[in-house]
Amino acid sequence: MGRLRIMKIGFLINPSSGGGQGQRIWEKIRPLLKRDQLNYCAYKTSRPGQVSRVCAQLLRQNVDRLAIIGGDGTINESVQVLMTQDKGVPIAIIPAGTGNDLARTIDATLQPQRAYHNLLHGTITSMDVMEITVTDHVQYALNYFGIGLDAYVARLVYHSPRLRRLRRLGYLHAILDCWSSFVPFDLTVEADGTKMDLEGIWLFALSNLPFYATMPVNPHADYTDGSLEVNVIPHMSKLDVAALLLEARAGIPPKGLIQSQAREVIIHGRGPITAQIDGNPVELPRTIEIRNLKQALPIIMP
């Protein structure tokens, strides 16, 4: 362990992630740090919206590695800082959320002890990052960007403490509610210069990962190749959408899902757009530009 003792590790802990799972996981990890006599510093978030500030504090400590104990939302907020600070600090994910799609891609077991071992002994690689530009504002995403049914589900859960406490059951309740009331929409999309008019669609989504909201819809996705996975649920009946979602949840290639790849996408809506970025709901103007930054963020892999 001598080599690891001279390395400084920062821990960003969201104790409320996954209904308190973040705190419980930290209580399991902390004794391992003392056992291994590691040099570390740890900061917790105490309320929503604090992740960016805490991440910036840790980077000012000149850490060599940053371990994030939280879910996909916590990771996304951290990435906003990491992409602007440009310090090249590699991140390690210790999963504590509800979906954990990035952690699931790294290691399907989702075990904190394995994630801790990966933090110390894993290989540093670099993964793609989505750059999302609206007017003069830029946001980043590691997992996915979606417009349509999934964005309305994310918004419903975000604004309901009861559904958030229910975790997976809360998302299922939100999906059923949105599925019954959702109105399909129109988009014009330019993908790598090719223009498409999409009418009456249920979903337009871009992803870097095999998993989309825990569903393995892009099994061959490569988060290092610079390409975005494009998924569209086209115009179809509600029953067909329900069947498609059930197939996707079961890991069966869903019938009717339109899939392709692109590196740069420009989206033109008919008005303001409700979207989700790594599971966080956002309200965006009608024109959105998205490009994939190839291998832009160092990450620690098994």
Describe the structure.
This protein has 302 residues and is of the alpha+beta class. It is built from ten helices and 16 strands. The strands form three sheets. Strands 6-5-16-13-8-9 form a six-stranded antiparallel β-sheet. It has a six-stranded antiparallel β-sheet with strand order 12-11-10-7-14-15. It has a four-stranded parallel β-sheet with strand order 2-1-3-4, with helices on both faces. Helix 4 links the parallel strand 3 and strand 4. The longest helix has 19 residues. The two termini are 18 Å apart.
How would the blueprint of this fold be written?
Blueprint: H1 2-5, E1 8-13, H2 17-35, E2 39-44, H3 51-60, E3 65-70, H4 72-85, E4 91-95, H5 101-106, H6 112-121, E5 123-134, E6 137-141, E7 144-148, H7 149-158, H8 161-166, H9 168-181, E8 185-191, E9 194-201, E10 203-207, E11 228-233, H10 238-249, E12 258-262, E13 264-269, E14 273-277, E15 280-284, E16 287-301
Parallel strand pairs: 1-2, 1-3, 3-4
Antiparallel strand pairs: 5-6, 5-16, 7-10, 7-14, 8-9, 8-13, 10-11, 11-12, 13-16, 14-15
